[in-house]
Design goal:
Elements (H helix, E strand, L loop, with lengths): L8 H7 L5 H9 L6 E5 L5 H6 L5 E6 L2 H4 L8 E5 L12 E7 L7 H11 E12 L6 H14 L8 H5 L10 E3 L5 E7 H8 L3 H10 L3 H9 L8 E14 L1
Parallel strand pairs: 1-2, 1-4, 2-3, 4-5
Antiparallel strand pairs: 5-8, 6-8, 7-8
């Protein structure tokens, strides 16, 4: 798994979107026994924290210690630095394995082997993420141009899985048909810029060009977005759920 997210880890906790309550409520209906959950690629622990409200024990792993340093804490969450594809968890442990906005970075075959080893029979596996932000036709057009034409060549090849709504990820499980979910926030332009600066392609661009392309994008957006104004921003939720 690539580690694109160890630098400026505090910005991920501050600016990255969370997942809607309705999604967690739906997920909980699929899991009759809530003893052990594994949040793999936990990042700043936002999903682990939500799971801690329902599960007796939550194991949350990531390859980035700096991300875990920013993670939300609860008495029943155990964080550890471990790769998705090889962990020290015992066989037949988990009622749920969940991966949020990270599965596209994994070695699918090795990870799925680890899932089948560590999950209980008929446990739930959930791959969840979010797609490109939607705000308004005019602003969306500007961001789409930036996404595709300015930083497009700086995205890792794994980004294609998000662009394809996770539908092209191999998923060798008994798949469950899910409802559609989305997440909506009220953001200022400052928050949007903070979020865009967490994109891995922006980091790659800066590394290669010694300049931040988001600065020019911000100037382009300012005529469309007053400094203190808030706008509704929407993230479509990407979702694959199955039984192990």
């Amino acid at each position: 798994m690539k580690d694109n997210f160890s630098t400026a880890s505090d910005n991920y906790a501050k600016y990255r979107p969370k997942y809607p309550t309705a999604f967690f409520e739906y997920l909980n209906t699929l899991i009759p026994e809530k003893i052990n959950a594994w949040d793999c690629g936990t990042g700043n622990g936002q999903v682990a924290f939500e799971l801690s409200k329902y599960f007796k024990n939550v194991c949350a792993t990531d390859i980035s210690q700096s991300q875990l340093d920013e993670a939300l804490e609860a008495m029943n969450i155990a964080y550890s630095v471990q790769p998705a594809e090889k962990t020290n968890f015992k066989d037949n442990t988990f009622d749920l394995v969940i991966v949020a906005q990270a599965i596209h970075w994994f070695d699918f075959e090795k990870f799925y082997t680890e899932v089948k080893r560590t999950a209980k029979q008929n446990a739930i596996i959930c791959a969840v993420g979010y797609g490109l932000i939607k705000i308004s036709p005019e602003i969306d057009s500007v961001i789409s141009h930036f996404y595709t034409n300015i930083i497009g060549s700086y995205w890792d090849k794994e980004r294609q899985y998000i662009d394809n709504n996770y539908q092209t990820i191999p998923f060798p499980f008994k798949e469950i048909t899910t409802p559609d979910f989305e997440n909506t926030y009220s953001w200022t332009l400052v928050h949007l810029i903070g979020y865009l600066n967490t994109w891995s392609a922006v980091k790659h661009y800066i590394k290669n060009n010694n300049t931040n392309p988001v600065n020019a994008l911000e100037k382009e957006l300012k005529p469309l977005w007053k400094t203190d104004e808030t706008k509704l921003v929407t993230f479509p939720i990407l979702l694959r759920i199955g039984k192990v």
